[in-house]
Structures are given as C-alpha cells and as structure tokens.
Design goal:
- The chain is an all-alpha fold and 279 residues long.
- It has 2 domains: 146 residues, Cyclin A, domain 1; 112 residues, Cyclin-like (Cyclin A, domain 1, Orthogonal Bundle), CATH 1.10.472.10.
- It is 70% helix and 0% strand.
- The N and C termini lie far apart (49 Å).
C-alpha cells in the first residue's frame, strides 16, 4: 500500500499480504474485463451487446441449475468477453461458445461438468464434440491471458479481508451474517456483469461499489440503535473505502458516475425480485 498515506493501524502487519494481493489484482484486471468496443461495430449476423447480455444471463441460469460456485460464473464471463474482444463471432455459434466458456471455467474451479448434461439443461443443439472443440479454440485465442484469474469476486474477497483487519469490531457493522451478506454481493455482481452498460467497468470498481451499497444498507438500519463507539467504526469504514478508492486510482467524478449507473441497475433488480416474491 502507499506508505505515504498508510492504512488504519489495526492489523497492519497482517494487512501486508492482502496489500500485495490488491496490487497484483490491479495490474491484470483489464485483461479479464475487456471493453467490447468492437461489438458496437458489428456486421449483420454477428454477436451484439444485447445477445452477449443474453448469453451471460444464460450462464447465470446454468450456474444455479448445475449448482456451480459463483467463481465459475465469473470465470466463464471473463472467458466469453475476452474471446469476443478478440474475435468476431456469428450469432449461430454464440450458444456453443457460451457453453464452452462455462466448461472451461468449471475446469478452472476444479468442478466436474458432464458435457452431455450441460447440453441437456441448456437445450442446445450442438454436440459434446462441438463444445469441446470450441473450448480448445477459446483456450488458444486467450492463451495470453492464462494465469491467475482476476474477477470482481476476487476484488470483493480482498476488500473483505482488508476490512477484517483494519476495523477493530467489524462484526458490529455486519452482525454475524457475513456469509449471507457476501452471497448478496456476489449475486449483485452477477447482475451487473449481465448488463453491458456496467459489465465492462473495472472489476475493482464494480466490487467496491457493490461492497459499499451492501454495507450502507446495514449501517442505515443499525446506526440509529448503535452507540457512539459504533459511529467511530462507521467513520473508519468510510476512511478505508476512501483509501481503497485512492489505491485503485478511481477519481471522485468517475466513482460518482459509476455509482449512479450501478445503483440504478441494482434498484431495478431489487424491484423485480420484490415483484417476483409478491407474485
């Protein structure tokens, strides 16, 4: 971390390896979250941003249906976007490409996927041989990006680790529901990656804003009933968010712009979820 600024004192020694992880993730985040500017200039019959979003939503469905970890989804989206950033793809091949990316992502996460089951669940007309052949093509085209995968979920883990060590009474803010809170944040990240208006924001930005949105909810509910000590914890939280923002080199104007766009999509998602529950 920036020694001239430093981080809050608690857990400073333990924070060093986390700081290294953040530095490492920042160095490669653009590789795994490419801006698909080429998709704006597509020819008839080629994959559009809209069809790309549809494919990512299909990945969400398949992840849930096959009970895969969130990281398999994030990795699959990264493979898909990296491939689309390098290659022009015909719409007719998008389904096969999407399935092959999920197959590769499952391998990355050491999860076993039966290709035939994947085809059955997705109602795809392509064959297992098609998926495996496409997976090899994807590997070849994105081989320059092989190595440690860096996704929004990786940044979220780093931010959570940072707060664990710089906030003395972290549990006073998040109660004992960290598992559910993290699950909520991962779902929101999936929603954002499924929308091309926010999908290509830097992973560090996506994770930081989702983290801030979720904790803001917790604090807004708990703050009126907490002690003065809790107010100090809130201040420390806000200070640490600012430190992360500076370390990630996110300008205030950019953060405000990103925050407005992301919160708009998150609110739409929450309204839809409420409607589904009430129905």
């Amino acid at each position: 971390m920036d020694k001239r600024r430093g981080w809050p004192a608690p857990g400073a020694t333990l924070l060093k390896p986390i700081a290294f992880n953040l530095e490492e993730a920042l160095q490669v985040e653009n590789i795994y979250r490419p801006n698909l500017t080429s998709v704006h200039d597509y020819k008839t019959g080629e994959v559009t941003l809209s069809s790309r979003d549809g494919a990512v939503n299909n990945l969400r469905f398949l992840r849930i249906w096959l009970d895969l970890p969130h990281n398999a989804f994030f990795a699959a989206v990264s493979y898909l976007d990296m491939f689309l950033a390098r290659m022009r793809v015909q719409e007719k091949y998008l389904t096969c490409l999407t399935l092959s990316c999920l197959y590769l992502a499952a391998e990355t996460e050491n999860c076993k996927i039966d290709v035939n089951k994947l085809l059955t669940v997705s109602h795809s007309r392509c064959t297992a041989r098609d998926v495996l052949r496409m997976a090899n093509i994807v590997k070849e085209k994105i081989k320059s990006a092989q190595g440690t995968m860096t996704t929004p979920s990786n940044f979220l883990d780093i931010y959570l680790d940072i707060f664990k060590y710089v906030t003395e009474q972290w549990e006073h803010i998040i109660s004992k529901e960290l598992t559910q809170i993290k699950e909520n944040m991962l779902i929101l990240l999936e929603v954002l990656l499924s929308d091309s208006t926010t999908a290509f924001f830097k992973s560090s930005v996506l994770a930081l804003i989702v983290f801030q949105i979720e904790v803001d909810k917790i604090m807004s509910v708990g703050l009126p009933n907490k002690s003065v000590y809790f107010l100090g914890e809130v201040l420390q939280f806000l200070t640490t968010v600012r430190e992360i923002q500076l370390k990630c080199k996110i300008k205030n104007g950019e953060l405000k712009h990103f925050y407005m766009q992301i919160t708009k999509i998150v609110k739409q998602y929450e309204i839809m979820q409420t409607w589904i529950i009430l129905s």
